[in-house]
Amino acid sequence: MRKIIKLCLLAAFFAPALAPTITMAHGPSRVLLIEEIEINASPEKVWAVISDYCSIKDWHPTVIDCTSDKGNEPESVRVITLEGGEQIREILAKYKPDTFMIQHYMEDGQQLKAYPITTHGLTITITDNGKGGSILKWKGAFYRYFQGPTPPHELSDEYATEKLTIFYQTGMENIKKLSE
Amino acid sequence: MNYLLSILLSFCVTSAAQSATFAYITNQVSDTVSVIDTTTNQVITNIDVGHRPAGVTASSDGKRVYISNPESQEISVIDTSNNTLIKNIKVGDAPVGIVVSPDGEKLYIADWYLNIVSIMDTGTMKIISEIKVGKSPSGIAISPTGDHLYVANRDDHNLMLINAETENIEAVIPVATAPFGVTAAKSNNKIFVANVRANSVSIIDLDNDNQVTNIKVGGYPYAVAHDEMRNRIFVTNQHDGTVSVISLTEEKVIKTITVGDYPEGIALHPSGKSVYVTNWFDGTVNIIDANTLEITGEIKTQDGSRAFGNFFSTH
Asked: What value of ipTM does the predicted structure carry?
């Protein structure tokens, strides 16, 4: 019995350290990412591939699942599951089928493992390239979660940029494939 | 002939003495400051500064502009007579909000990581003192007389009122979640704070027991401009790409103006006629007519325009 109490006390002592630290703090400056790809298909055709907020599970190779609470309605929250099981909650901010534009943000209070970031916003636009095709543009921004002027490489803005750029490019290349 | 010459000379002297107002816009992604001549609304030059410039403040004599660079831990000092960089000075761990004293002698620097306000002597360009504040200090403003500082502690959700002379903290005023930009009124004792994660702006009345009035605005409000003449404030809403205009008499939003993406820095032009808004995501500046509340112009700056602080300088 005493042993169990001891164990419980020990567990209680360490519990706060085990609890995930959800912090809202972030680095001092936001980072911008821009990727563009030309697609030999009309903007309408490209839009058809990505227009559903949860279609990301169909066109992004590293997203294995997506559920949303309100579909394409304003402030709809989708939960995407990455390869490896990590989930990200994202709020739909702008949805404009007329101009082929969609914008979403990561919900507050998340600190990701796959990417060392705590905020992320992405604006996807499709424009006419004047040659019968389209330009698909992803414009994103994030804050790293590491606090302090000298982050280790795997928690730095540079590393997050590298990893997110790959995420963007993989998605965009597959959208191109599915549209053409 | 002499008469004509003297007229011409007097004309030349008046023209030379006539001052113009310039906007100094920090471009966080480009590591530059764009200088806009507000008479033509053209960018006249881009000045290389430190890494990821954010904050900006101008001395009231118009001679200098100071820039904070949180990622290179530097303050950049700009000579406005020729728009060149005088010096980058290493300061702390992450200088963000900055404000220069009305007499131009001191620069107050909020350090995001060290949780202090550093005080720099602008003559020697050395740090002469430090004030311990709350967590993640971001926005900083100063009273028109220079006797008080107002600091938003973003992760403590409060505003600190500091006596600039004694450096004592005189009050800690709870506002709402994640206060960021702070603006002090010029003619009365009101302070305006944008609360990023509460989607609200706090109006603090220092003459009335530091009473706080919160007004809902758009998504992720960032900073506030004050139009004293019309008794209004303008608030940038980063996530909505809008500016909320609030009537202080009615204490409500009277108009929401669509601007560029991720609007951040905002300031009233010294003429009182317009409000300039920087759009981080677009690398642009929008001009709003302070009277009609319509957009009257867009100026292309460079990537990541932030301009956190009062970015106008008249010289």
From this structure: 0.84
